[in-house]
Design a protein that fits this description.
alpha/beta, 284 residues, eight-stranded parallel beta barrel, globular, TIM Barrel
């Protein structure tokens, strides 16, 4: 295995496994999909027919998981039982990596939305301490995702500074969402390319790619319900030129198109990865 491959939990282009498309995927498991991802909260302790469906996929594809409700930045106590359940789930299904949103989604109760953490030094230390505790329980590293946000609470630090500081302080990995960079750069008026270029290559484990809704010229909403737009494709291509063909997962959460359209986006990811690998080889 090459150094490039050994640093990543999976390879190639992946697709988020969602229940509405599970039957279609079971009927004809796509060869173009190299790995899959689920939200563990949707599948932990699920048995019966649904449990068998998940097993069908985990026996055929490498898997990563992306959490929804750890609420790593919340003021409430860390849900250590959830972390232990995730650890067991990963062992049961041979899951390669766990990532979570760098945000919070509840205090006394679940808010069912991802809320931004204040971009402050105090929050860096608080969140990093919680991440280290999660990694201690898991007995392995986790990755944090850069999230889309709309109304920042405190901008003592920039989004980029905050993200980098948390990852460094926690000594954890990064799951970089390309679409979220595009969305935030438009909504908060910063340069998406500068943000991308500042990311720590040695901590990147895989990318997310998704579509978003154009609410207005200067407002984008991260929905995962539309095709990937040209800006995100362009930024993904730039990311590959910077970091090599990093494993990339296509997210689609609702408003599903015909399966071939979805797989066409997965194939486009693979084409860009192949092109980047070829250019890297040609340049030595």
């Amino acid at each position: 295995m090459s150094d490039h491959q050994s640093k990543y939990p999976v390879q190639g282009a992946g697709l988020g496994l969602r229940r509405p498309i599970a039957d279609q995927l079971m009927a004809d498991p796509p060869e173009d999909v190299d790995f899959m991802e689920v939200a563990p909260e949707n599948w932990i302790h699920v048995g019966g027919k649904l449990g068998k469906k998940l097993r069908f996929f985990t026996e055929r594809y490498p898997f990563v998981i992306h959490g929804l409700s750890l609420s790593i930045g919340a003021p409430s106590p860390l849900n250590e039982q959830l972390v232990r359940d995730i650890k067991d789930f990963m062992a049961e299904h041979k899951i390669r990596m766990y990532s979570e949103h760098l945000s919070y989604c509840g205090d006394d109760g679940q808010l069912y939305d991802l809320m931004p953490i204040p971009f402050t030094e105090e929050a860096v230390k608080y969140v990093a301490g919680r991440v280290r505790r999660v990694q201690d329980i898991l007995e392995q590293r986790m990755a944090l995702e850069n999230v889309s946000y709309y109304a920042p609470i405190d901008t003592s630090m920039s989004e980029r500074e905050f993200l980098l500081a948390v990852i460094e302080e926690a000594d954890c990995d990064l799951m970089l969402d390309i679409n979220n960079i595009v969305v935030n750069s438009i909504n908060h008026r910063y340069d998406a390319r500068e943000f991308l270029h500042a990311m720590p290559a040695d901590r990147i484990r895989y990318f997310h790619l998704a579509g978003h809704f154009v609410e207005d010229e200067d407002l984008r909403i991260d929905t995962h319900g539309t095709p990937v737009d040209d800006q995100a494709w362009s930024l993904l291509e730039e990311a590959y030129s910077l970091y090599g063909p990093v494993p990339t997962l296509l997210e689609r959460d609702f408003n599903f198109p015909p399966m071939e359209e979805l797989l066409d986006e997965v194939r486009r990811i693979k084409q860009l990865q192949t092109g980047a690998a070829g250019r890297k080889a040609a340049n030595g």
